Amino acid sequence: MIRMNLTTATAAIVVGPFAGCRCASSQLMHHPNRRERRSKSGRFFLLSGSLYVRCLDLDSGVDRSGSIGEGMDPALLDGIINRLLEVRLARSGQQVQLSESEIRQLCMVSREIFLSQPNLLELEAPIKICGDIHGQYSDLLRLFEYGGFPPEANYLFLGDYVDRGKQSLETICLLLAYKIKYPENFFLLRGNHECASINRIYGFYDECKRRFNVRLWKVFTDCFNCLPVAALIDDKILCMHGGLSPDLSNLDQIKSLTRPTDVPDTGLLCDLLWSDPGRDIQGWGMNDRGVSYTFGADKVSEFLSKHDLDLICRAHQVVEDGYEFFANRELVTIFSAPNYCGEFDNAGAMMSVDETLMCSFQILKPAEKKPKFIMPTGI
Questions:
Q1: By Cβ atoms counted within 10 A, which residue in 97, 142, 154, 248 is the most buried?
Q2: Which residues does the annotation mark as catalytic?
């Protein structure tokens, strides 16, 4: 059985067998250059074939600095990052008002970097992997506080940076700025909300229009249409926002997807951003979202075996603990927005992958709800 090494700030214990996983529960949204590699032996499955997992409670790094992308003044870029980070010491939710010109530069320069890199990124550990952020900027800053601000650690984000939350602009601007400053150490994948037809409805369009104008939203759309859609870590961990596709038989198909592109309603690109694991099915099933498919544990095992992979890492669904295993721990869902939309009591999580491909989950606890003050009667 798989064991979990549960580490707190003061103690380390081994707990096993690991509790049985449950399929990620979600609030469904309806559709409207890599270096020479090390030896692959024993790099992911440890302890006689078992995946050794550590869970870190954050409330209780490696520097491989990249070069600043061409086309943006380094002093300007650093100034943007500094202003975005200044609110760390301010009250949660304080806006950072960049100029429209600065934001346009972030979009245009990062767009060229995305197009210069593969649609299937080939990355190396160590790296930290984050799921949905959804405009929860203060929680994004918390992730960096705990994981290390770039370039202290390498990062891969799995998409859904905008919509739902109140600060999509701050969120996406900081992520794009870090992508420009550290292009070989900081990576962003496309989520289903990095699509005009979706973020036109779920908040980002309105935020851009309220704080700037519709033209700027269209500039973001041009940038989002160039984002890569998957990443492969040390040939063993395949990452995407949504999940598998019945059309995916070879990883080269991902590399061959054209960019820039909108997200179609069907097909491989759609599925990579929209599909979900289904606990109670085998094979492929209908998705309650009204788009793409659900897939059973059998399809996960079949895919991993065929491609000599050890793990699928995806986001796209709210999970209570911030991370959740599926298919005998061959797939993990990561969700990094605690107290999602202010309506859920979920934690957020970030998965750290070390040089041996051992995975640890760092947890952002949900904020405690403050009791409401009730005025006594008769006063």
A1: 154
A2: 193
